[in-house]
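Suppose you are handed a protein chain with no further information: no name, no annotation, nothing but its sequence. What can you learn? This example shows the usual starting point.
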Amino acid sequence: MRLTDYLDKGASLGTAAPCLTMGDRSYTYGAIVSQSHRIALALNRSGVQPGDKVAILSANDPTAFTCVFGISRAGAVWCPVNPRNEAAENRDLLDLFDCRCLIYQSSFQALVDRIKPELPTLTTLVCLDGPADGASSFEEWIGESSTADAEFGPIDDVAMLVGTGGTTGKPKGVMLTGRNIETMSALTLMGYPFDGRPVYLALAPLTHAAGVLCFPILALGGQVVIMPKPDLPQFLSLVEQKRVTHTFLPPTLIYMLLEHPALATTNLESLQCFWYGAAPMSPTRLEEALGRFGPVMAQLFGQSEAPMMISMLPPKDHFNTDGTVARARLASAGRPAPLVTVAIMDANGTLLPSGERGEVVVRSSLVMAGYYKNPEATAEAAKFGWHHTGDIGYLDDDNFLFIVDRAKDMIITGGFNVYSVEVEQALLEHPDIQDCGVIGLPDDKWGERVVAVVQPHAGRTVDEGEVIAFVKARIGSVKAPKAVLIWPDLPRSKVGKVLKNEIKGQLTG
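A reasonable first move is to predict its three-dimensional structure. Written in structure tokens, the prediction is:
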């Protein structure tokens, strides 16, 4: 399937049904389908051919997301651009992707002005929300309504190019095909609860997980309610007002929701599935979320190279057969998805038995076609015939996957491997700590020392020595932090994920 096929499938269930909503603006399936045809025709008039790359630089917005379907209908490749990236990083990505067209919001005009002179292949600029120097306004660009249909290009080509940072600092482009997204969507629909037409609330950026989760929602004729920016009181209000059935947030934003006073008075009975992912969630806080949100929490684990559904922990798997919370299971990432084979591999390519730690490797039609114009990195990621995730983990005897850490976040101190996630999970059991990040810093004696940066709950104080003792009692002195720094807030990505690289940068100068 092409990306636009999910929209067309939803439209076949009723063109008058609401499709995309933001604030007081709501657009039906019929309107979005018509607009996507006009966008595809405009791309064609601009010289964009099937297989060409078209980037979107925008905050969450219905018109920007409609452009995704116009790009697909034109046979072109959608390149989502993270608005929080530095100008140089976005320039490098657009250059790597050979982008022909950039569709952007006027709030990013200064960024566009900085990078455009260095991008000679970028021949078409379109501003979504007004006139801009050197760019066409969106309304002028798409022109008058047309009855002509626009369908260009093959179905099975690359559908998305997703930028990802590498350990060398050089950007890479993950090539995701229509088959990859179709596999992800099929797994979503078969693995999680859907009763009736879903209403999906998108607070997290549509350039990330929140965007690709829209495709299975649209295939069911569901409504996507878009939030232009994170606003937790508004999020809770919309869940109640719009009778939201499905949503996604990273753990750090869920922690903030659990602290919000409005949660206690919000009607959450419409929720069927509250996805969490993008980072490990504290089992202690997850159990709290099950009590506050109800039996709707649902984990997903994936990465750009194998989107969203490597493993799945649907709501029912959070509980034992007698209805009690399955506490030991809450630390897992669920079981491998039905269309995905997961194994644990050592550095020599040997598959390890259950219980042993190694790199998580994957085989599935979920896995990317490769890295764009980077055969060396593609081959490295596919060593020994498996896709290498870069995550360290193990499978237990019941085939539940436990992610121990990212390989690059592992700390080697005094010859011992310390997994930062394990230390973070212990810290998050402390009643006064809301969030944290654990890193390794150079140490003359130990090679690296474990350092924790913690954010206390509002109105609470944290004592460094008491926290170190608290962690020692749970996971031992080797893994306990040698220092605990107390910050009022932690650096986070746009989706709320704690940025350990920024913490390390601030501490090392």
